[in-house]
Design a protein that fits this description.
By secondary structure, the protein is of the alpha/beta class. It is built from 8 helices and 6 strands. A 6-stranded parallel β-sheet has the order 2-1-3-4-5-6, sandwiched between helices. The chain starts with a strand and ends with a helix. The mean pLDDT is 91.
Length: 194
């Protein structure tokens, strides 16, 4: 499982917050890799290309099952990668992903995801691209979503949750913070990674 951090976070934050230790305590057969993406801006295709060439494809070549995971902005990057590299990953685990600005979330919420149309997409519009992927997603790969009830991005999370099977969503008390994300990670470890 490859983890992508949120804005202003680093790979070592996952270690500090106990993500690997939670796996070890449970003796899960799950290898975690925490990755720093040096992104210059929100829609950094160079970062996604490096993720593919340096990490994803070598892992796939080894025969490993591969999950992509992310927190906040890392969740957006994971979704963006999944939307344009179908078949390269076996699942997604998203904790409080950033899913777009409030104007876009309100636009989708006003008509509902089923009726919403993304329109013509600019290459640089990652937010609309991931929502088009969510709306048209027809594959059977797992997509796990976890978030806190008090998260400042919960409007987008609620929209995504409504598009997923109930067993794929975990909602706990808390906000957009490590304490909540750690609790969600432990919840998913216990419920989905036997």
């Amino acid at each position: 499982m490859i983890w992508l951090p949120g804005a202003y976070h680093r790979a070592q934050d996952f270690e500090r917050e106990g993500f690997a230790q939670a796996v070890s305590r449970r003796r899960k057969p799950l290898d975690l890799r925490f990755v720093d993406l040096e992104m210059q801006h929100l829609n950094d295709q160079d970062a996604l290309e490096r993720l593919q060439s340096d990490i994803v494809l070598p892992a796939r070549d080894s025969g490993a099952s591969l999950w992509l995971a992310g927190i906040s902005l890392g969740g957006l990057m994971a979704m963006d990668y999944a939307s344009s590299h179908l078949g390269e990953i076996d699942g997604l685990c998203l904790l409080a992903p950033y899913l777009g600005n409030r104007m876009l979330i309100n636009e989708i919420a006003a008509v509902g995801l089923a009726a919403w149309e993304p329109g013509e997409l600019a290459e640089s519009d990652a937010e609309r691209r991931i929502w088009r992927y969510i709306k048209t997603r027809a594959d059977s790969r797992p997509l796990l979503l976890g978030y806190g009830r008090g998260d400042r991005f919960s409007g987008g999370h609620d929209l995504l949750a409504a598009a997923l099977p109930a067993g794929s969503v975990a909602v706990v008390g808390g906000g957009h913070e490590w304490r909540t994300w750690t609790r969600l990670w432990e919840t998913f470890l216990d419920s989905h990674f036997a």
